[in-house]
Specification:
192 residues; alpha/beta; three-stranded parallel beta sheet; 7 helices; 8 strands; elongated
């Protein structure tokens, strides 16, 4: 399988049309921007339509062919709020754009920012913030809640589907969040 290397491609001016791309609220926008720019350099006459969707809606849109490409952040064993099982995920082709670590994130002014690491059990003593695809979803079905519940009972002081609100709430010390390393590197957050 050959990976896409935009530096070795010549512009394909003879290809026209629309490309519908959807991303989830947790997908790192700098990676979206870079990927779209590289694609546009090779396919300059393709109009890209970019939308943000919840992950269940994104997979539904892919299955119904209403979007062409979905960009998601997920672990290798991700179970989308128990709505999409592994067999359903096998219908899709996945090509990683990047790999990143999931980190605990706190505001730079947080007392926890001095720690280099903490156990999950210790983290559960502090208020948490949950980034959800849909705020109406039961947090008990969220993959992060399922993971954290193995170590104790997570207490969420805020649940949101707005990534900017999520980052701001973490940086303002409303609670602890979980982000990829690329998302933490915005200057206002500290990883543990």
């Amino acid at each position: 399988k050959k990976s896409f290397d935009p530096s070795s491609e010549r512009p394909a001016y003879h290809i026209y049309g629309d490309l519908s791309v959807a991303h989830t609220n947790s997908f790192d926008f700098s990676l979206i921007s870079t990927t779209i720019q590289q694609y546009s350099n090779v396919y300059p006459n393709i109009n890209i339509i970019l939308n943000q969707m919840s992950m269940p809606d994104l997979f539904k849109a892919l299955a119904e062919n209403t979007i062409d490409i979905g960009m998601v952040t997920m672990t290798s064993d991700y179970n989308i709020n128990k709505k999409i099982i592994h067999d359903d995920l096998s219908k899709f082709s996945f090509s990683p754009l990047a790999e990143d670590k999931l980190l605990v994130a706190v505001g730079k002014q947080s007392a926890l920012a001095q720690n280099k690491s903490m156990s999950i059990r210790s983290l559960l003593k502090y208020p948490l913030i949950l980034l959800q695809h849909n705020c109406s979803d039961d947090p008990e079905n969220n993959w992060l809640t399922c993971l954290l519940s193995l170590y104790g009972n997570p207490h969420y002081v805020l649940r949101t589907n707005d990534f900017k609100v999520y980052q701001t709430a973490i940086s303002n010390n409303t609670g602890i969040g979980f982000l990829t390393a690329a998302s933490v590197n915005n200057g206002q957050l500290q990883s543990l």
